UniProtKB/TrEMBL annotation, chains A, B:
<dbReference type="InterPro" id="IPR046825">
    <property type="entry name" value="PDH_C"/>
</dbReference>
<dbReference type="InterPro" id="IPR046826">
    <property type="entry name" value="PDH_N"/>
</dbReference>
<dbReference type="Pfam" id="PF02153">
    <property type="entry name" value="PDH_N"/>
</dbReference>
<dbReference type="GO" id="GO:0070403">
    <property type="term" value="F:NAD+ binding"/>
</dbReference>
<dbReference type="InterPro" id="IPR008927">
    <property type="entry name" value="6-PGluconate_DH-like_C_sf"/>
</dbReference>
<dbReference type="GO" id="GO:0006571">
    <property type="term" value="P:tyrosine biosynthetic process"/>
</dbReference>
<dbReference type="InterPro" id="IPR003099">
    <property type="entry name" value="Prephen_DH"/>
</dbReference>
<dbReference type="GO" id="GO:0004665">
    <property type="term" value="F:prephenate dehydrogenase (NADP+) activity"/>
</dbReference>
<keyword id="KW-0560">Oxidoreductase</keyword>
<feature type="domain" description="Prephenate/arogenate dehydrogenase">
    <location>
        <begin position="1"/>
        <end position="280"/>
    </location>
</feature>
<protein>
    <submittedName>
        <fullName>Prephenate dehydrogenase</fullName>
    </submittedName>
</protein>
<dbReference type="Pfam" id="PF20463">
    <property type="entry name" value="PDH_C"/>
</dbReference>
<dbReference type="GO" id="GO:0008977">
    <property type="term" value="F:prephenate dehydrogenase (NAD+) activity"/>
</dbReference>
<dbReference type="InterPro" id="IPR050812">
    <property type="entry name" value="Preph/Arog_dehydrog"/>
</dbReference>
<dbReference type="InterPro" id="IPR036291">
    <property type="entry name" value="NAD(P)-bd_dom_sf"/>
</dbReference>
Length: 280, 280
């Protein structure tokens, strides 16, 4: 099968590598608005060729959209307009409600499968693409009842070959849960980086002292605003909700520390330790 | 050399393993208020024998205190009372000002070297001890001008053999900088775990969806309150200061999202990306 990956960055590039390696596709066409990224992806052998979307549609069956969620809102309807009945379109976006509302009434909605692989790193661009990014990770498929049976089967079979776990959700559930398990982590990391950059003027000291704990809570702050601002925008209401709760929890800890109520502080930490049970 | 490690948990246990492996000590005595931990540490071959502090002082030259910082405040003065001129005492605690103030006037202050290895994990107890925890990590030595030259030399030589980088600071600087690069990361992680546990009632969904990003920002929330409450207590003023700034940054992001000012939000994320330059 010939597959096209639109957006040859971290996720699109890593998928391209995996599709080829696992035998899902034997030829990968890359499409990207940046000619530099396309050239880089070809140089790194992530894709077999770079081309235009029109040409790619002529020759490939599977089209994967791996572009920021705001670009996806613009691109998906016009791609659906152009496709043939044998095409299968899949996205990998981090938000789903707005996108699925937008194409709900499209005559070719059935050819689209909404997907979100729960995997990534804080880096972006084709150089960030890595092998095995998706192995043993979760692929969420949303509102699959609105996808044609054969389109869904093709994607499910792909997910299986990529050695991923499948989870089904509706778009609302998806956007709610990802606010908790992904989007808020990025917000706290951005804010933590700003806090340290603001207050810690001796940045050499950070470099000398920072160990694993700091690195792990702050590394997501390296993430690209091009990807993340659209996600927060699309999932604004859920993100605000979780963010308010998070600020409330921090204020609570702050007050306990201010009042030197260490017994209650101890109990709060014990309560937070319960995350042990649900973290892998 | 015979060395004694008081507190055979994550840090003490990992140090015991390294001291032996790097040839700093050829025999390690473990001291711990928990007989169970001592037995476990011996079973895991982390220590050669378990004993009492009194016996350990009779037979060893180097004594390393790897106990929570509040327990350290109680233990250090009485240990200094008991030691002989050939003894060298080192701590590994995460806060320094209170401890160094406490022993400032002690006649045997010179035998003590205040140290803080910038390394750890979210786990505790002897089972959490690991090889190579300290390799290429930073060891901070505080107020070394108040330590005897031979005591300092012994510790510096140990740090060198452990393949660690040495950094010198005074106690005030240390407590300020660690509030930024370590203590605040733990607070945000505890608060993030509480947020998710509070709001996300479908905990199975967290398990299914949580990927690397969530795991890395929340893993510190597995950390023990026995270790961390005393640290926050001892470094209360610095931690409150950083925490206030962090809450302020989060509130700022919250307002931008509420007002849908995505341009400013974008710029804030770009600014936070500068952490790339100073993170390893």
């Amino acid at each position: 099968m010939i597959a096209t990956v639109v957006g040859v960055g971290l996720i699109g590039g890593s998928l391209a590598i995996s599709l080829k390696e696992k035998g899902v596709a034997n030829w990968i066409i890359g499409v990207d608005h940046s000619q530099e990224n396309l050239a880089k992806a070809q140089e790194l052998k992530i894709i077999d060729e770079g081309s235009t979307l029109e040409d790619a549609l002529q020759r490939s069956q599977l089209i994967i959209l791996a572009i920021p969620v705001d670009a996806m809102l613009k691109a998906l309807p016009s791609i659906l307009d152009k496709i043939q009945p044998h095409h299968v379109i899949m996205d990998v976006g981090s938000t789903k409600e707005k996108l699925l509302q937008l194409v709900a009434g499209h005559p070719k909605r059935g050819r689209f499968v909404a997907a979100h692989p729960m995997a990534g790193t804080e880096y972006s661009g084709p150089e960030a693409a890595v092998r095995n990014l998706f192995v043993q990770k979760t692929m969420v498929l949303c509102d699959v009842k609105n996808s044609d049976e054969d389109a869904l089967e093709l994607i499910e079979s792909m997910v299986d070959k990529l050695n991923m776990r499948l989870v089904y959700m509706n778009a609302e559930e998806h956007d709610l849960h990802t606010a908790y398990v992904s989007h808020i982590s990025h917000i706290t990391s951005f804010a933590l980086a700003l806090t340290v950059l603001e207050k810690e003027k001796e940045q050499g000291r950070i470099f000398e002292l920072a160990s694993g704990g700091f690195e792990s809570t702050v590394r997501l702050a390296k993430s690209s605003p091009d990807m993340w601002v659209p996600i927060f925008k699309h999932n604004r209401s859920n993100v605000l909700d979780v963010l308010d709760e998070h600020i409330h929890q921090l204020q609570q800890m702050r007050e306990l520390l201010a009042q030197e109520d260490y017994d209650t502080f101890y109990k709060l930490i014990q309560k937070s330790n319960k995350i042990r049970k649900i973290l892998k």
